Amino acid sequence: MPKQTRLTLGEFLRKARNKAGLSLRDVEEETNVSNAYLSQLESEKIKQPSPVVLHKLSKLYGVAYAGIMELAGYPVPKPLAGNSMLHARVGRLTEDEEDAVVDFVELLRSRRRRQGRQ
Amino acid sequence: MPKQTRLTLGEFLRKARNKAGLSLRDVEEETNVSNAYLSQLESEKIKQPSPVVLHKLSKLYGVAYAGIMELAGYPVPKPLAGNSMLHARVGRLTEDEEDAVVDFVELLRSRRRRQGRQ
DNA sequence: AAAATCTGCTTGACATACTTAGCACATGCC
DNA sequence: GGCATGTGCTAAGTATGTCAAGCAGATTTT
Question: How far is CA B59 from CA A2, A77, B20, B26, B98, in A?
Answer without folding.
Answer: 31, 12, 12, 14, 35
